[in-house]
Amino acid sequence: MFVWLVPHGYDIAGTVGIVAINFILDGIIGGGILIWRLVVATWYIPLTIYRLLTADKSATPQINIEKGFKSYE
């Protein structure tokens, strides 16, 4: 996501200033999203490791091959 302010009716200094504000706002928004994603990752990585270590071994899926299977050839 980004913010884009279109400079119209400004001289060159005003245009450069608005473009600079665009980059500053984009950096703030992107930094917030980056921090949020890092917080979520630091929560889910230990949670996933915990779930893998404490998983019920009897709950693993098993492949059952039926006896007398007839193929349709």
UniProtKB/TrEMBL annotation:
Keywords: Membrane, Transmembrane, Transmembrane helix. InterPro entries: DUF6050 (IPR046113). The keyword Transmembrane helix applies. The chain crosses the membrane at residues 12-36. This is Uncharacterized protein. The lineage of its organism: Bacteria, Bacillati, Bacillota, Clostridia, Lachnospirales.
